[in-house]
Amino acid sequence: MATRDSWVSNLGFVLAAVGSAAGLGNIWRFPWLTAENGGSAFLVMYLLLIIGVGVPGLLAEFVLGRRGKQTPTGALRSLIGSPEGSALGSFNVVTTIVMLSFYSVVGGWILRYTLVSPVGAYFGQPAQYFGQMSYGLQAVGFHLAFLAIIAAIVFFGVSRGIERVSKVMLPAVVVLLIGLAAWTMTQPDTAAGYAFYLGFDGEYLAANFVNILGPAAGQALFTLSLGAGAMLTYASYLEDDASLPRATLVIAISNTVIGVLAGLIVIPLLFSQGIDPGQGGPGALFVALASVFGSLPGGAVVATVFFATVLLAAVTSGISLLETPVATLVDEYGVSRRRATVGVSLLIAVTGGGLALASSVFRFVSGPLVDIMLSVGLFAFLAIAGWILRTEAIEEFSAGAGRLDALATPWVMTVSWVLPVVVLFSLLSTFTSLAGISLGLNGRAVVAITGTIVCRIVVASATGD
Ligand code: PFF
Predict the structure, then answer these.
(1) What is the mean pLDDT of the chain?
(2) What parts of the sequence cross the membrane (predicted)?
């Protein structure tokens, strides 16, 4: 078998992983979720969850990837030493396919907005424009175009495709976002927006703690690309001398900076036109923000730069989602990368095309289904790293970690006991709101703790620990 591709440099890995993390989640999802959940209160909660849950969770995925040296199916099978590992890995592969199916539809919308912004095609009637183009045959066409872009990159492999492109696109995203945030500061009537976003409101946080926790936890997972196996796959191409804790910190900080920057653009701009940012929901970017662009001098230029930036960010995330199923076919079945890329892309052309035609299914898939699949995936990673491997996981954490290896034991404790409870808690929040059941903070906490203990016992009896 041919040798596996790998990153040319550790920096290349870090840039590609930040590229995966920083995407529609940061620029499309984060600002409207923040606005909908009280602005600064959500921001504070989200930052705490990134530090407390996101960073240790991402480390778990990296540890499994580098230790397993394969895509999720093979990695988890060899790490656990049983066929259940293959099943869990296959679940990850399905997750990435489901995610990319919806992600590519939104990527198609962004592609279209980038192309039509120079002529301000949606400036007159943004809501109507969005309504007409978001689902239907035209949406299918743009979904296929977006998919073709990412397939062309993955086709060339890890070092020649993904790494090369990420090294250019990701810095471009950061520079463009900084430029747009600086431009936003020069706009009139933005003060209220900054105050809403950055002025800490302890009372609101205390009063709405329970309601904010669920969405903030979900966003922390989504934005760090946790639970899908994409980060596991990226880490499988790493050398043993890379410091996983250091890389994780750099990735989490960079991704957070990118999200916060996006908020510094979107929220003050909406306020400047007197638009309540919480009302926009998922259409915020395409309707509310689009109407802001329409009413600003030079709006067409700014809109074009803005949507082009989002497009670059979406592409670097999309490639990590496509890489996972493609590399699985390569690793597990010896299919050539090129054939695998074409085959998987054809599948996603169909599944994404279906979503672009069925708006209600799209909403279910892009919301609750993805949240559930990512949470289940992450729970499995935590159980494997913290409960089943434990000593091996600590060893892998420490390899190349230098002085940060002192954090290995606290990390494995967190992964074993704290994170599973938080993930189950957020999973419960999704289920209860889906089923219309009201279960308060205490109720959810009790079920999450009990569920974790039960799972721990089941795993211990199955593995004979
Ligand atoms: N982190 C990406 C974003 O914020 O847009 C979404 C994502 C990409 C999630 C890849 C999961 C994944 F595997």
Answers:
(1) 94
(2) 7-28, 40-64, 85-115, 135-156, 168-185, 220-237, 249-271, 283-315, 340-362, 369-389, 409-429, 441-462
